[in-house]
Design a protein that fits this description.
Length: about 300
């Protein structure tokens, strides 16, 4: 199993990459599509994970704004970035949303992305957004997400007391919501462009008046993905079946690869071994009928493989 982490580069050309992990957000759907496409090239199941926060969005927007590229090119870069941001926040099928970025359509939902496997619940957050934007304004636009959330929740932290923010009218008006909710809403308002994030010694929030003002006035509604607690111990997707036959074949493959000084996937991919373990061929002819078992590999490994399979 190979994990490819984008933060450390993607100089990987292997067919058996099982996971691709992004530690921050790519700057375009094109880059994202190209990078996640390195997983599962052998046809077996693979997964991708994208981790990002409001600071990543703000940093990317700031980078594009400060670019020395011509204005026409900067406009294209901004469009691609906003498309990527929209993809990360989409409550719909992500595969359909990703393909739409390239002008392609999918007849139905893919059924395997996180949104398809556990459809998100969307709830109205207009009033909470007004509270949050008011808290950012009342605290002077000089504090980060944790501080603003503490004010909303009525938490008398050292920083809240030192700045006398416990005396503000917004202190405690969001005590009915957990801090995780306010952080999620902050990220969403950054995506909408209602909040700006200044990247310095630590990120600080401020209002983006043109977008924030209609929300504060109640002229624009805001919806957010509702947090749904996942039952403890529940897996998000079924694990690969590790049958005794599959384990035996993998052990044979590992020993053979070590003897030859080559990576195991050069002998056979996991998907091929899985098919062999499932169908349990008894003859070379039956083994040759399995996809991925070519004539050269049949001649080289066929007898050994059947012997290992027993």
């Amino acid at each position: 199993m190979v994990v490819a982490t984008i933060a450390f580069g993607m100089g990987i050309d292997r067919p058996d990459v099982r996971f691709v992990v992004h530690l921050d957000m790519p700057d375009s759907p094109e880059a994202y599509y190209q990078q996640i496409g390195r997983a599962g090239r052998d046809g077996a199941e693979a997964q991708t994970l994208l981790l990002y926060g409001a600071e990543d969005i703000a940093r990317a927007r700031s980078f594009h704004a400060a670019s020395a590229a011509p204005e026409a090119q900067k406009a294209v870069m901004r469009t691609r970035l906003e498309a990527m941001i929209g993809l990360t926040e989409s409550p719909a099928c992500r595969t359909r949303a990703l393909l739409a970025c390239f002008g392609e359509t999918l007849a139905g939902d893919c059924g395997h992305c996180d949104n398809c496997r556990a459809a998100p619940v969307v709830e109205d957050a207009t009033e909470e957004s007004r509270k949050l934007l008011s808290a950012v304004h009342r605290t002077g636009g000089r504090f980060g997400a944790a501080h603003v959330a503490a004010v909303l929740r009525g938490e008398a932290t050292e920083a809240v007391l030192r700045h006398s923010h416990d005396a503000l009218s917004v202190f405690g008006i969001g005590a009915d919501r957990p801090a995780t909710y306010w952080r999620a809403l902050i990220r969403h308002l950054v995506v909408l462009g209602a909040l700006d994030v200044a990247i310095g010694d630590y990120p600080t929030l401020s209002l983006a008046p043109e977008v924030a003002r209609p929300i504060l006035r109640g002229e624009q509604a805001v919806a957010i993905r509702a947090a749904v607690a996942r039952p403890r111990g529940r897996e998000t997707r079924p694990a690969r079946e590790e049958t005794p036959a599959f384990a035996t074949l993998r052990a044979w493959r590992l020993a053979t690869a070590r003897a030859q000084g080559v990576p195991p996937y050069v002998i056979f991919h996991d998907s091929v071994l899985q098919e062999i373990a499932t169908s349990r061929p008894a003859t070379l002819a039956e083994l040759a009928a399995i996809k991925g078992v070519g004539q050269s590999k049949l001649l080289r490994y066929g007898e050994e493989l059947l012997a290992a399979l027993g």
